[in-house]
Amino acid sequence: MSSTNNRKKLLLMGRSGSGKSSMRSIIFSNYSAFDTRRLGATIDVEHSHLRFLGNMTLNLWDCGGQDVFMENYFSKQKDHIFQMVQVLIHVFDVESQEVIKDIEIFMRSLKQLKKYSPDAKIFVLLHKMDLVQLDKRDELFQIMMNKLSEASTEYGFPNLVGFPTSIWDESLYRAWSQIVCSLIPNMSTYETNLIKFKEMLNAYEIILFEKMTFLVICSSNGNLQINNDTNSNTINNKDEKKKSNIVAIDPKRFEKISNIMKNFKQSCTKLKSDFKTFVLNDSIYVSEISPNMVCFIVLNDTRQSQQLVLENVSKASQYFQ
């Protein structure tokens, strides 16, 4: 694959104050949610060249959301901004008092993408969802997604994907994991090899993370496309549960682990330390499996020796380069 094909242009757009730079700093620059309070407004376009999985470069264009800049994007700079875009991530502030104008700007972006990058993937993040009453969140999300999906389809982008997000919980990791993983060309190879590795270790589940961001790449059990219904993976009938001997799995486990591991990594950095492997209760292993990936292993059989497990991780590394 050529180096040009390994460069992926991502447009991060939305009105001023919607939280674009905060989420970018948390995911890619190891900021905590508290750290983002010192960030200023983005002036024009900030370019970040981010290495992901070693051989892929994410060219992230964080576009300032002030009206004067927005008008410039859609007039003088349109062929520069909207050309060769792989992904548009449009951020909406759920507390905005100008929703109609927010949607209008989104539609103007789609119009330019249809002309300059008709194959781009479109993602929308309904951000600051923590500020909405818990019992109103699903309703608000569905209302906005219906409006945005209609607009997106009108401009030739029928496969709109949306997420409710907040910098104060793990939802940000869920959204960005799926966004970035949509760009990985050999995802099926990783998934196949991970399933074989799980069988070899007799593991309950193995999850692959990108080393720097701790975004989820894939799981041996699949199901990264998580339903918004948090109860979708639970078993309600107690008798059925006993018969089938199935343990209900938290559908938000991927992003929760991402959040925990990222915080752990930040703590290590503050102590000027690092980790390559740690083991918890002889059943959970977190270990580097390649220079760009970390695996999170949950074993079925805790009687396996640590040395044997780690040797198998080392041998499997050649399949995750």
What's the CATH first level of the largest domain?
Alpha Beta
Major β-sheet annotation: 6 strands, mixed
Q: What percent of residues are in strands?
A: 15-25%
CATH level-two architecture of the largest domain: 3-Layer(aba) Sandwich
**In what order do the strands lie side by side in the largest sheet?**
2-3-1-4-5-6
Describe the structure.
The protein is an alpha/beta fold and 321 residues long. The protein folds into 2 domains: 7-182, P-loop containing nucleotide triphosphate hydrolases (Rossmann fold), CATH 3.40.50; 187-225 and 250-319, Beta-Lactamase (2-Layer Sandwich), CATH 3.30.450.190. It is 37% helix and 22% strand. It has 10 helices and 11 strands. It has helices at residues 20-28, 67-73, 78-81, 99-116, 137-154, 171-181, 187-201, 238-244, 253-270, 306-316; strands at 7-13, 45-52, 56-63, 87-93, 121-127, 161-164, 203-210, 216-219, 277-280, 284-290, 293-299. The strands form 2 sheets. It has a 6-stranded mixed beta sheet, with helices on both faces. A 5-stranded antiparallel beta sheet has the order 8-7-11-10-9, sandwiched between helices. A hairpin with a 3-residue loop joins strand 2 and strand 3 (56-63). The longest helix is centred in the middle third of the chain and has 18 residues, at 99-116. The relative contact order is 0.11.
Notable characteristics:
five-stranded antiparallel β-sheet, 321 residues, 10 helices, Beta-Lactamase, single chain, 22% strand, Rossmann fold
